[in-house]
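FORM 7B: Structural annotation worksheet

SECTION A. Query
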Amino acid sequence: MRSVTLVLLVLLTAALASTASASQLIDRNAGGVKLAVNAKGEAMLTYTAGGKLKHVLAWGGVNAIAPSDARAQVALKLDYSGGYGKYRRDYWKTFGTACGAYDGPDLHWAISGVPSCTAPDGSYWAVQSWQRALPNYGAAPTATQAVWELRLSHWTSGLATLTVATDWAWHQWDHLFGTFNYSGSPVYGFKSTVGGEPLDSFGRNIYVDTFDSAYGAGWKRENSFLAHTGTGAFCYSVNPHGPHPSGKGTRYRATVIGPGVTPDIFWEGLAPGVYDKSADAIANDSIVQLGDKLCRAN
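SECTION B. Predicted structure
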């Protein structure tokens, strides 16, 4: 009897999995998404994925903290059994919603027909979905790379700020630079792979897409890169990379996963156009003001 009990406890622990951080990743290629939030401050996501109906209970996290090498970033607790792991019953069957009309900021990548929620305590819950894993340089994605990630966020006030400006690198290549900040402080991590993948719960990649470029018509992934440690700054030149042509487009857009469990942030703007010496000089001054040794004016 003890062995059966032990197996049951292991299964319940797995159902209460909590991932690292971010506008939290819930699932992939989800359809029929519904969001409900009760008076206890819990959220229930109902959706289909992989041909199965799923119910995910979320609680226990809000907003974000500043980068720290002493503790982990804020994260939600997730129960993929729909409440059985937490309450030992099919909680989702009687889960009511107490959502008020959403009066928070507009969110890009929000799912059409799935309203965000103003909870009874005044906090906000929202779901977003976008293709984070697309390959660089406009390459055709595999089925795995093309997935739409379902992401859940919970916050009270104030979103992260992604500031992006454009100029020219070496007087010829389109160049994007800027900062990623939250609550007056830069957002960055402490550890990453050689390829720029964060290895802690604080690091954030900026995912850049290019529009109507040499890669083809419409939006294509150009690249992704880390916000720099200590400053939250970044800079990227849209020049040829190995066998890949320059991904120069008519427009650019950038998406970054929000810190902690705050929403994912989006920017879109025009390409800088034909090189302008005076405009480039002004931009170079702005790059110097970033105070980041990895971003150099040229």
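SECTION C. Observations
Helices lie at 2-15, 84-87, 277-289. The two ends are 72 Å apart (CA to CA).

SECTION D. Sign-off
Analyst initials: ____
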